[in-house]
Design goal:
- By secondary structure, the chain is an alpha/beta fold.
- It has eight helices and eight strands.
- Strands 1, 2, 3, 4, 5, 6, 7 and 8 form an eight-stranded mixed beta sheet that branches.
- The longest helix has 16 residues, at 2-17.
- The radius of gyration is 17 Å and the shape is globular.
- The termini are far apart.
Length: 219
Amino acid sequence: MRRTLCLLSLCAVLAAEQVHPVTGRHIAPVMGMAGADWLVRPEREAEESPDAALAVIGIPRGATVADIGAGAGYFTWRLAERLGPAGKVYANDIQAEMLELLRRNLSTRHLTNVETVLGAEDDPRLPAATMDLVLMVDVYHEFTEPEKMLRGIRASLKPEGRLVLLEYRKEDPSVPIRPEHKMSVAEVRAEVEPEGFHFEKTLETLPRQHILIFKKSVQ
């Protein structure tokens, strides 16, 4: 009987962790190595316009940028090329296998201005006050500890640093992505702003995603 009660309590805790405490949003499962090929699918160029996204965000050469949930490195190598040899990318992921794949992809492109970081579900493990920009592409909605992660990300930013999220538009039912992998602008703002970020603007120039830009608030 005690064991049954303990199991029921554990299930209740796990279920609670899958819903954001502010918005009630259901947190999506993390994509594993089985989905690595999907991350670099040829169709992604047309569906997400990655180079156009980075251009409109505006990232200067020589900057220091973190790519959170970097996966196979689809945005990492674009960032590394854009920043140039004087810049640096911290490629973060919680899966060591993904980071190994990312390193192989970088090697084929002869890029050396990237440092991989094995993060945790509640800690990006980035150096403090170092980042000019932290980028999260289709990843924030998978955070199982979003509040703790945002606090860690905020600590990694310089005083004028920016946090940029790309998320599939929940407001648009025609976007062919499962609902738990979409977010609305209202949801993102409601979850991010209380963690020490000032909303700057939303850019709606991409085919399927919002670009949401925040600055580190002065506290």
